[in-house]
Amino acid sequence: MKRISIVDIIIITGVLIALFVGIFTLKHFRQTADKQIEAVSQIEFQVFLRGVTVTGENFPIVENEKTFITIRNIPYTELKILDVKFEPRKTFAPSSKNIVVPDPSQPSIYDAIITIADVAKITKDGAVVGGNKIKMGLPVVLEGQKYKFNGTISDVRVSTDIKIEDNSIKADLS
């Protein structure tokens, strides 16, 4: 009879572990990644752009157009811009009322909030877009024909009125 070597023991142990994991997954003792997805829903998230320098007459990001988005240095896709709010950098005016006025020392510097829509997978941890959890503080890059701006996500809203589950649309009336 042949002696059992250490390599044979490692192979047998690996096969037995794979069998146990398969059985536990089949009997629903262990969740797989697709089981963690609770629904697919429309989301809106806002990207805050701080200190954008624009010397032209118009702000380059325009409502109802598309922008290409990069999340954590990984290109994702083009998404629709729902809303654009921008205003010049502000400062306090020296007066007794403490009013805020546009900063005359930085006339071409703007702060902007861009609202973008997408369809996301909803999990217990939040919305997942392009394999990334979309949460406040996440760095993103918005890129168009005339611009490429770095920003951070400042708000995430999951639509509660329409949920897409198993390719069918169901209205949530709660």
Protein architecture, described:
The protein has one helix spanning 6-26; strands at 39-53, 66-71, 74-88, 90-92, 100-102, 109-123, 126-129, 132-133, 139-143, 148-165, 168-171. With 174 residues, the protein is mainly beta. The protein has 2 domains: 1-30; 37-171, Elongation Factor Tu (Ef-tu), domain 3, CATH 2.40.30. The strands form 2 sheets. It has a 6-stranded antiparallel beta barrel. It has a two-stranded antiparallel ribbon with strand order 4-5. Strand 10 (148-165) and strand 11 (168-171) form a beta hairpin. The longest helix is centred in the first third of the chain and has 21 residues, at 6-26. The protein is elongated and about 90 Å long. 10% of the residues are buried. Mean pLDDT is 83; it is low at 162-174.
Rg from C-alpha positions?
25 Å
CATH uppermost class of the largest domain: Mainly Beta
N- and C-termini, Cα separation: 71 Å
Derived from helix and strand composition plus strand pairing, the structural class reads mainly beta
Shape label: elongated
Give a quick account of the main beta sheet: strands, pairing sense, barrel closure. 6 strands, antiparallel, barrel
CATH topology (fold) name of the largest domain: Elongation Factor Tu (Ef-tu), domain 3
Provide a quick synopsis of the model.
By secondary structure, the protein is mostly beta strands. It is built from one helix and eleven strands. The C terminus is likely disordered.
Would you spell out the secondary-structure blueprint of this structure?
Elements lengths: L5 H21 L12 E15 L12 E6 L2 E15 L1 E3 L7 E3 L6 E15 L2 E4 L2 E2 L5 E5 L4 E18 L2 E4 L3
Antiparallel strand pairs: 1-6, 1-10, 2-3, 2-9, 3-6, 4-5, 6-7, 7-8, 9-10, 10-11
